Amino acid sequence: MRVQVATRLALFAVFQLAADPSRQHAAAEIAQRFGISVNHLSKVLRTLGRAGLVEALRGAGGGYRFRGNPRRVTLLDVIELFEPVGAARGDQDPEGPSAEGRALHRVFDEIDDIARATLSSISLATMLALIEEARRTPGGPERATAP
Amino acid sequence: MAMSHQKTSSPRSEHGDVRIRAATLSDLAAVVALDAEDTGIAKPAYWKSRFEWYVGRRPDRFFLVAERQDAMLGFIVGEVRAWEFGSPPSGWIFAIGVSPDARLHGLGTMLFDEMCVRFRKAGVKEVRTMLAKDDRLIMSFFRSQGMMAGPFIQLEKRLAP
C-alpha cells in the first residue's frame, strides 16, 4: 500500500510527537530529522492540529506537542485526515455498473476491507512498540513469540 | 494493555493480587457469566463442551483463568495444533475474555503472556488466532501484543441452497 507524501509526513511526525507527549518539538527539528521542508511539514502539522491530534505551542521554545491518546488513536485515524482509504471505485468504471465492473469491485473491496481492518487495529502505542522492535532488530523482527 | 510483570513457567502465576491458574470444572458457571457479559449472549452448552475439551484433558490444551480474591476476572483458551492447513505445530488462541470492569489494567496481557509461556513449554514457536475483521477492540488488543498478519488467509463461500 502506498500513501501520499503528506500522509507519510504526518505519520512520521505523529510517531515522533506521540513517543513523548510531554515534550514539544519544533517543526524544524522534525523536518530536519526526516530531511523534508519545514513549509511542507507545517501544512501537515496544521491539519493534525485541526484534528486535535497535536497542539501548537507559541513563544520562545514553542513547537508542537501530541495531545491524543496513543492507545486510542490508530493509523487509520491519521491517514484518513489526508486521503481516503478504500475509496469507492464506481467513478473509475467508464462503462458504469457493468458485470465486469461489479465483479472487479468485489475484489477491490476485499482488499480495502483488509487494509481498513489492519490500519484501524494498530494504535500509535502499538506502532511505537513496533518501531522500538525495529530499532532493536535492524534486520527485521523474527516471526516468533517474544522470548 | 502493556504491563510489566514476571513471566513464569509454574502451573500458577501471580501478578500482584491477580492469580492466573488452569481452569477447573467448577469455573464453568463463572466463565459462562463473564462471556455473556462480554458478548451479550449466554452460551452454557457451548462452554460446557469447551470445558470437556480443554480442561484437564491433555497437556497441549490450555484453559486459564485470572482471578482476584476468588472472583474471576478473565479467561483465555488455546491449544497446540499441528499440520492443519499444512502448518507445523503452533499455538492457537481460540477465546479470550476480560470482565469490562477489569479492563485497561493489563489483565489481558497477563493472560496472553501466560498462554505464550505454556505454548513455549509445549515446544511451539508461533502463536496464532483468528478474528472478525470488524472487531476493532479485540484486534487492537492482539496487535498490542505484537501479533501481525500470518501466512494464512481465510476464504469462504456462501453455499447454494
Order of helices and strands of chain A: HHHEEHHH
Radius of gyration of chain A: 18 Å
The order of strands across the largest sheet of chain B is: 1-2-3-4-5-6
CATH architecture assignment of chain B: 3-Layer(aba) Sandwich
User: Number of DSSP helices of chain A?
Assistant: 6
Short description:
By secondary structure, chain A is mainly α. Chain A has six helices and two strands. In chain B, helix 1 packs across helix 2 (44-54).
What does this structure look like?
The complex is a heterodimer of chains A (147) and B (161). Chain A has one domain: Winged helix-like DNA-binding domain superfamily/Winged helix DNA-binding domain (Arc Repressor Mutant, subunit A, Orthogonal Bundle), CATH 1.10.10.10. In chain A, 52% of the residues lie in helices and 5% in strands. Chain A has 6 helices and 2 strands. Chain A has helices at residues 5-19, 27-34, 38-50, 75-79, 99-121, 124-136; strands at 54-57, 63-66. In chain A, a hairpin with a 5-residue loop joins β1 and β2 (63-66). In chain A, α1 (5-19) packs across α3, α1 crosses α6 (124-136) and α2 (27-34) packs across α3 (38-50). Chain A starts with a helix and ends in an 11-residue tail after the last helix. Chain B is an alpha+beta fold and 161 residues long. Chain B has a single domain (20-144), classed as Gcn5-related N-acetyltransferase (GNAT) (Aminopeptidase), CATH 3.40.630.30. A 6-stranded mixed beta sheet of chain B has the order 1-2-3-4-5-6, sandwiched between helices. The model of chain B is unreliable at 1-11 (pLDDT under 50). The A-B interface holds A 71, 74, 113-114, 117-118, 120-123, 125-126, 129-130, 133, 143-146 and B 1-2, 91, 116, 119-120, 125-127, 133-134, 136, 139-140, 143-144, 146, 148-150.
